[in-house]
């Protein structure tokens, strides 16, 4: 017995000590194991334990110091949208945490996997009404699909690992609230990450069956004016959809997020619907009798899908979305690419139809108008020429971050995009100020690519302090600010409401001077002839590894509002008109004739859809 006790004591004295690491460092190692290389945030006292860990791990984890937490959250959302990988942002307790909400809601609405780390006062001070202490979890309960308050130092890395898994699973936001003192506590330096090779597997997707596909083909055969409305769910199957469109003589309209996935130069691609729209897309959709929505999340469906009766087919990987956009005639629970493949395999080619030819002619007429607007020279400057110069210097795989406002409309119409490009907007949440954060994310995620940031003066003003972030991290972003002293997107809305313009005019600023004050080279442009020199300078500076800003002083003209066109069927013919809401505030010329409407927007060569239908003998 004595020998046994002696041996046990001897073994305990010689055992190697357990290697420990601060809990916050263990947490960062989990992030690193998931392939996360940087995180966006702004320090605060309640987050110091994590800031300490970021200093310890600075060789493996880059801290990106933004100048406002909203920018950090929007940047993380943009990075997740661009890459499909989880991105990380953080804020300290109190205002640092609440400042994240806009960016987190942007991530939630656009189904982007984002992890938000939230500081909390030390556990010993919780529930004492301590400085900046408040119950943070209820604030994030709506925006996050997974939200947890860390209860022990030992559980911190586990909870963060679980949060990342949940963000991927839910394609949304995970939030972890960390009492500051926990991060300093030594815990065993174990392998806390659950990363596995199985994480790289493609998820199985639902497949269509013969009966579903044959039913859709019969509906197309019975229709006179079918149209496909495709969204980003088509992914890399755009060329296959073009083949199907040609084979079945069905034109395509796209959601904004599908821009670039279907080639812009495909004659049957009519473009986008609603307000940020192509004339041809709005017109052809307005006369459709069958709509086949494929992988499309269309937030304006209640406006556009309710304008007239039609048969409706919806193809989606998420069957819970069926009926969300329109009363459903047929739902096909399927991956978009697999659906298109089977449609091609089970269909026979259709002879060229008058309707398809007319749709193509309508789009060609619209494209000619866009080319005309782009190739003019104007003084003062107008927005179309700015896009002409962007298209000239943009590389094939350029990354674009486009802020909210008129630039969304103009980018859908004038910006050349292909599947090689990466681009990001705040789509469903439509948060002004998303442009700078998106550009930061784009350049950090794709350091070898050319990155453009396009924003209006209203949106840019919300986040322009983070130009200094571009300079600090030597991010060669081309910033293009279309400055017209107006919140023009809202101004155009107010044009069509019986009210005076209210709250939409903003004081002009010298953005070039402000930019130079932050150490970013810049130039101001006031007429189209000055654009080539300005963009040449932008190329020179950014190729040398520095950001550059162009302050383009454009007019506040309204782009042609094709959404105000109306089509109705009367006495055996189509009649195109102008909505009674157009120019309700009487700030523009009062127009009732379609051709006068076209001329008012320099579109004398635009044709009405009934004219085109007559040329191609399309009968109602």
From TrEMBL:
Keywords: Pyruvate, Thiamine pyrophosphate. CDD domains: TPP_POX, TPP_PYR_POX. Residues 26-137 form the Thiamine pyrophosphate enzyme N-terminal TPP-binding domain. Residues 403-551 form the Thiamine pyrophosphate enzyme TPP-binding domain. SUPFAM superfamilies: DHS-like NAD/FAD-binding domain (SSF52467), Thiamin diphosphate-binding fold (THDP-binding) (SSF52518). Residues 213-341 form the Thiamine pyrophosphate enzyme central domain. PROSITE patterns: TPP_ENZYMES. InterPro entries: DHS-like_NAD/FAD-binding_dom (IPR029035), POXB-like (IPR047211), Pyruvate_oxidase (IPR014092), THDP-binding (IPR029061), Thiamin_PyroP_enz_cen_dom (IPR012000), Thiamin_PyroP_enz_TPP-bd_dom (IPR012001), TPP-bd_CS (IPR000399), TPP_enzyme_TPP-bd (IPR011766). Signal peptide: none annotated. It is an enzyme of class 1 (oxidoreductase). Belongs to the TPP enzyme family. This is Pyruvate oxidase. It comes from Schleiferilactobacillus perolens DSM 12744.
């Amino acid at each position: 017995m004595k020998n046994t006790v002696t041996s046990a004591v001897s073994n305990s004295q010689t055992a190697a000590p357990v290697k420990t690491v601060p809990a916050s460092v263990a947490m960062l190692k989990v992030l690193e194991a998931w392939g996360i290389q940087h995180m966006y945030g702004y320090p605060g006292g309640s987050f110091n334990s994590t800031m300490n860990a970021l200093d310890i791990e600075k060789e493996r984890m880059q801290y990106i110091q933004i100048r406002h937490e909203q920018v950090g959250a929007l940047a993380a959302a943009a990075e997740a949208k661009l890459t499909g990988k989880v991105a990380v942002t953080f804020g300290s307790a109190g205002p640092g945490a609440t400042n994240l909400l806009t960016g987190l809601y942007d991530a939630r609405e656009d189904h982007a996997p984002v992890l938000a780390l939230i500081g909390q006062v030390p556990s010993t001070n919780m529930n004492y009404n301590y400085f900046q202490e408040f119950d943070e979890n209820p604030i994030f309960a709506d925006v996050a699909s997974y939200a947890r308050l860390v209860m022990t130092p030992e559980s911190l890395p586990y909870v963060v690992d679980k949060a990342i898994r949940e963000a991927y699973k839910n394609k949304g936001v995970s939030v972890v609230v960390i009492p500051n003192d926990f991060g300093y506590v030594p815990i065993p330096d174990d392998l806390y990450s659950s990363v596995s090779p199985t994480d790289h597997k493609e998820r199985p997707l639902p497949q269509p069956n013969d009966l579903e596909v044959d039913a859709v083909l019969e509906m197309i055969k019975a229709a006179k004016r079918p149209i496909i409305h495709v969204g980003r769910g088509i992914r890399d199957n755009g060329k296959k959809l073009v083949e199907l469109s040609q084979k079945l003589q069905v034109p395509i309209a796209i959601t904004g997020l599908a821009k670039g996935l279907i080639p812009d130069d495909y004659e049957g691609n009519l473009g986008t619907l609603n307000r940020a729209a192509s004339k041809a897309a709005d017109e052809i959709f307005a006369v459709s009798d069958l709509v086949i929505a494929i992988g499309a999340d269309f937030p304006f469906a209640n406006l556009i899908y309710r304008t007239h009766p039609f048969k409706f087919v919806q193809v989606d990987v998420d069957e819970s979305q069926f009926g969300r956009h329109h009363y459903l005639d047929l739902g096909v629970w399927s991956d978009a690419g697999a659906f298109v493949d089977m449609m091609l395999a089970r269909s026979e080619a259709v002879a060229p139809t008058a309707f398809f030819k007319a749709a193509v002619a309508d789009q060609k007429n619209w494209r000619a108008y866009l080319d005309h607007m782009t190739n003019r020279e104007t003084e003062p400057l107008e927005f179309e020429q700015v896009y002409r110069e962007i298209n000239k210097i943009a590389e094939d795989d350029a990354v674009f971050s486009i802020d909210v406002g008129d630039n969304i409309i103009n980018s859908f119409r004038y910006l050349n995009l292909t599947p090689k490009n990466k681009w990001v907007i705040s789509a469903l949440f439509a948060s002004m100020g998303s442009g700078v954060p998106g550009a930061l994310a784009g350049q950090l995620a794709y350091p070898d690519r050319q990155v453009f940031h396009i924003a209006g003066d209203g949106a840019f003003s919300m986040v322009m302090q983070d130009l200094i972030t571009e300079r600090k991290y030597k991010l060669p972003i081309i910033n293009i600010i279309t400055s017209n002293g107006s919140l023009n997107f809202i101004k155009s809305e107010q044009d069509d409401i019986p009210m005076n313009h209210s709250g939409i005019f903003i004081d002009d600023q010298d953005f070039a001077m402000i930019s130079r004050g932050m150490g970013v080279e810049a130039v101001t442009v006031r007429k189209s002839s000055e654009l080539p020199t300005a963009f040449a300078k932008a190329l020179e500076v950014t190729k040398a590894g520095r950001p550059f800003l162009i302050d383009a002083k454009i007019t506040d003209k309204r782009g042609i509002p094709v959404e105000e066109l109306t089509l109705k069927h009367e006495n055996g013919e189509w009649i195109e008109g102008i909505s009674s809401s157009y120019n309700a505030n009487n700030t523009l010329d009062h127009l009732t004739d379609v051709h006068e409407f076209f001329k008012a927007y320099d579109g004398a060569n635009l044709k009405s859809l009934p004219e085109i239908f007559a040329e191609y003998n399309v009968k109602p």
